[in-house]
Amino acid sequence: MKRSRLFMIFSMMIFGTISVFVRYLSLSSSEIALYRSVIAAFPIGLFLFFRKRKERSGAKENAAKKKEILLLIGSGAALGINWILLFEAYRHTTVSTATLCYYTAPVIVTAVSLILFRERLTKLQLFCFLMSVLGFFFLMGFSDLQTDGAGIAFGLGAAGFYALVILLNKGISGVEGLERTFLQMITAAAVLLPYVIFFGGFHLHLLDFPSWMVLMTVGLLHTGLAYCLYFTAIAGLKGQQIALLSYVDPLTAVLISVFLLSETTTVWQMTGGILILVFSFLNEWSGQCPSRIAHLFRIGNHSRKTNRRD
Questions:
Q1: pLDDT tens by residue, the chain, 310 residues
Q2: Structural domains of the chain, count
Q3: Which of 116, 192, 229, 297 qualifies as a FRET site for 10, CA 20 to 30 Å off?
Q4: Full-prediction pTM beyond 0.85?
Q5: In which domain, by residue range, is 85 found?
């Protein structure tokens, strides 16, 4: 369990530092996203190979995987577009603002689930949802839209596509987590490749040696290794621990924005960001809260009854 927590923390810290590296690269966001997916596919593929996962699925399981291939393709495409929009957000606004906009994804998932899947919310979940929305309005209302408007729009677009990744993955159950990521990265590369060819072209030949090292770091460290650590960690953690530790990512990004990049953030923007992060986390965590609270009440009632008998 201790190793799983460390792996989770390390993976989230790695994810949280990607903005610094992306800003250094003089490539388009679509090119970076393409190279990221291609470079990362190799170590993840090697990881799966050395783990000696043998494909011996039955006919029914193979049929199920075939039905889910369209969801995987859609998820991979959404993942690639999500990366493009997030990298653009980093270039048009501060890292903290882009990250906080990106972490409205859980709010979007909640809203879509209410409409499409007619999921019911507890009072606590509804309160968390409304407070997260309030935090977003704080962030928007106290930002300079002439300066940060494009970055906020890109950040929200990235959040929307990440929410789509989450929703599509809800329908995928026949593919294991790491294999799912490997397949999604391959499909992301397949979708991004024609986009780069027709709308931007390739500019790898313009990179100097330090830029090549940065690009390899984004692919191998921030994608390949980070995802391997992440999926190894979640196998040994509970849902609430995953939800809690995943917020190391935005906290790392915000700290880098303030202390390393010296980006300025107003008190109201930080207030909005705190509301988004805290209540998004509570919304994810609250699914098991009612049952735990009820369990505590049952223990308390049982103790009272026992004392009365004595």
A1: 688 889 889 999 999 999 999 988 989 999 999 999 999 998 888 878 877 655 554 444 555 566 677 888 888 899 899 999 999 999 988 888 888 888 888 778 877 877 777 767 778 878 888 888 888 787 776 666 677 788 889 999 999 998 888 788 777 776 776 787 888 889 889 989 998 998 888 999 889 999 999 999 999 999 888 888 887 787 677 766 776 777 888 888 888 888 888 887 778 778 888 888 888 777 766 654 444 433 433 434 444 444 444 4
A2: 1
A3: 192
A4: no
A5: 2-309
